[in-house]
Amino acid sequence: QVQLVESGGGLVQAGGSLRLSCAASGRTFSNYAMGWFRQAPGKEREFVATISASGISTRYADSVKGRVTISRDNAKNTVYLHMNSLKPEDTAAYYCALSDGPYVRSSKEGYKYWGQGTQVTVSS
């Protein structure tokens, strides 16, 4: 049984920073790419960032490029999302997901398992 548990969300002022974490269990974590997605109220879930199984390759949504860094620690079975220069439009529930393979994926369809989400709220 795969479990993904996100943490690190909260309320932050515009321009601030947050680091989200996602702890995985139930699979050989280092074999799979990981991704972060977000969903604002009334909107579809959208891609934020992805990292390959090895950690060498990453990909970002244009809306967060330059402000967000995805990283992983395979020894700790954890993936991180470092977010800087946060904007009110970044407000959403953030979800981590485990892919069905080792390569970066930006489509929701490429992910088999999802966490419960952590809320990020950016005030102006």
- DSSP helical segment count: 0
Q: Give the overall shape, derived from the CA principal axes.
A: globular
Quaternary state reads single chain
How would you characterize the largest beta sheet?
Answer: 7 strands, mixed
The succession of helices and strands, N to C, reads: EEEEEEEEEEE
**Could you list the spans in which at least 5 consecutive residues all have pLDDT below 50?**
none
- The separation of the N and C termini measures 40 Å
Structural class by sheet pairing and helices: mainly beta
| Integer-rounded radius of gyration | 13 Å
Fraction of residues in H or I helices:
under 10%
Instruction: Provide the residue-averaged pLDDT.
Output: 97
Total E-strand runs: 11
Structure characterization notes:
- This protein is mainly β.
- It contains no helices and eleven strands.
- The strands form two sheets. Strands 2, 4, 5, 6, 9, 10 and 11 form a seven-stranded mixed sheet that branches. A four-stranded antiparallel sheet has the order 1-3-8-7, with no helix packed on it.
- Strand 5 and strand 6 form a beta hairpin.
- The model has no long low-confidence stretch (mean pLDDT 97).
